[in-house]
């Protein structure tokens, strides 16, 4: 056990959204686990605009333990933005990122930490026996297979955000300024030596996931647009192929005309061709429009998130907020 005073060895970052039913148990289990490793740890709970009693419980936990720190975002920005806020506030040599629903077992932190000490700056938890519903597991596998194909990198559907990361990795993550934040994909892109260890995945103790199918679909679209240009490349290839087929069709039609096989122009074939190519062009323009929309969002230069308040007046808020595409950090004081 690390007994070094005034040193934060491990920071645990937890995005919180409608988690009033699990916060007390989560905090208790994390405290018990980390006290076996070091006295120097902090638990950073980031309330991502919850409308239940989550923030009140975070304040209660912070008042009862010096290890607990809370950050409240002004509205629901999204899980990965809450993770970004927590990572910018973390002071630990190692940073653990996990969910608040207790499907990620706090007891696995010790196993992750011991593996990290072998020399791995990134250690990911691999959920071999996921306790999610069949639809979520299937959609996750299909999405990661599609993402692997689009980006040319292999992604494991058994791996989420749960893992332990060295401070250097988190510092590099904090330097990445793109407005579309997908924590696991950004960590994967860095390419640091990574280890994976199997962990036990628990069923959700209560309630249902706030990640609806619609939200997962929107997240998938965000990732594809932010981290892959393959859709545009596919449009170019499709355009070349359609042009080739059009020329071929034109030559065949011309030959049939000179052979006397065509006496009357076909109305149906003309309408079908116009409708088909119009649909293809509109779809292509739509994809280009989505990419342009992402550029438009980026050039606004808005902050990634806005902090409403914190439980720790000494928390270094000036290190938390950073604007995309701007090298200067912008200080935002708690209200």
Q: What do you see in this structure?
A:
- The model is unreliable at 318-335 (pLDDT under 50).
- The chain has 335 residues and is an alpha/beta fold.
- Strands 7-5-6-4-1-2-3-8 form an eight-stranded mixed sheet, sandwiched between helices.
- It has two domains: 10-227 and 302-319, Alpha-Beta Complex (Spore Coat Polysaccharide Biosynthesis Protein SpsA, Chain A); 230-299, no CATH class.
- The chain is elongated.
- The protein has ten helices and eight strands.
> What's the structural domain tally?
2
Q: Look up the CATH topology of the largest domain.
A: Spore Coat Polysaccharide Biosynthesis Protein SpsA, Chain A
CATH class of the largest domain: Alpha Beta
**Dominant shape:** elongated
Average predicted confidence as pLDDT: 82
The CATH architecture name of the largest domain reads Alpha-Beta Complex
Tell me the helix content: 40-55%
Poorly predicted residue ranges: 318-335
Our Rg estimate from Cα atoms comes to 25 Å
Helix run count: 10
- SSE order, as H and E? EHEHEHEHEHEHHEHHHE
Organism: Algoriphagus sanaruensis
Pfam families: Glycos_transf_2 (PF00535)
Keywords: Glycosyltransferase, Membrane, Transferase, Transmembrane, Transmembrane helix
Membrane topology: Multi-pass membrane protein
């Amino acid at each position: 056990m690390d007994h070094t005073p005034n040193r934060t060895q491990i920071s645990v970052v937890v995005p919180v959204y409608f988690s009033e039913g699990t916060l007390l148990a989560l905090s208790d289990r994390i405290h018990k686990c980390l006290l076996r490793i070091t006295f120097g740890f902090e638990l950073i709970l980031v309330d991502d605009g919850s409308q239940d009693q989550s923030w009140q419980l975070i304040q209660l936990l912070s008042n009862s333990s010096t290890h607990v720190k809370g950050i409240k975002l002004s509205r629901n920005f999204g899980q990965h933005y809450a993770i970004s806020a927590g990572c910018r506030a973390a002071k630990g040599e190692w940073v653990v990122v996990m969910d608040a629903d207790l499907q990620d077992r706090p007891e696995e932190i010790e196993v992750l930490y011991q593996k990290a000490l072998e020399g791995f700056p990134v250690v990911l938890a691999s959920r071999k026996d996921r306790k999610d519903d069949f639809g979520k597991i299937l959609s996750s596998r299909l999405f990661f297979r599609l993402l692997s194909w689009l980006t040319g990198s292999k992604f494991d559907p058994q791996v989420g955000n749960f893992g332990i990361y060295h401070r250097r990795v988190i510092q590099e993550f904090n330097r990445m300024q793109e407005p579309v934040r997908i924590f696991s994909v950004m960590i994967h892109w860095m390419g640091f030596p990574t280890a994976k260890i199997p962990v036990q995945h628990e069923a959700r103790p209560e309630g249902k996931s706030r990640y609806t199918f619609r939200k997962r679909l929107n997240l998938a679209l965000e990732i594809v647009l932010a981290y892959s240009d393959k859709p545009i490349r596919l449009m170019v290839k499709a355009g070349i192929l359609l042009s080739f087929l059009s020329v071929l069709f034109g030559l065949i039609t011309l030959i049939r005309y000179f052979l006397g096989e065509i006496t009357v122009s076909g109305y149906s074939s003309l309408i079908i061709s116009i409708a088909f190519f119009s649909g293809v062009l509109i779809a292509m323009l739509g994809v280009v429009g989505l990419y342009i929309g992402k550029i438009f969002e980026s050039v606004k230069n808005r902050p990634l998130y806005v902090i409403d308040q914190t439980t720790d007046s000494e928390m270094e808020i000036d290190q938390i907020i950073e604007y995309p595409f701007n090298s200067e950090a912008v200080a935002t004081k708690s209200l």
